[in-house]
Amino acid sequence: MWIIFQDSKLLKNMSVKDNIIYPLRIYWLWESTIEVKYDRVKKDLNIAPFEARDIHKMSGWERQLVNIARAVIHDPEFIIADEPTWNLDRKNTQKVADIFIDLNKKGKTILLITHDIHLLNYIKKQVPINLFKL
Q1: How much is the pTM?
Q2: Domains located in the chain, CATH noted
Q3: What is the 3-state secondary structure (H, E, C) of 94-130?
């Protein structure tokens, strides 16, 4: 299980790559295993265009993509996404939705917490979802 927070919680003194792989280092994985996992996530989520950018100079979309990459690098079965698109425009919100849809099609369970009705409608057009309203 992994949680994607609405605020990316990136470590400002680390590079994009180090932010993504940091949780793997806690598990003391072999460096070769970390590199394979990073390369896969980097390719799948198209991290390369801003991989060298300073965290402070990244857009909200880029930060959230790093946040998502940090979550999926673990290959968790269950992801809780708490307002992951709160600071994104509609285009980038749909990109995040597409990532979640793809993960769901690969068998991952996504618990998405959002107030964005446009996001929900977009996702509902792509995959069957269960809605919970409080």
Answers
A1: 0.85
A2: 2-126 (3.40.50.300)
A3: HHHHHHHHHHHHCCCEEEEECCCHHHHHHHHHHCCCC
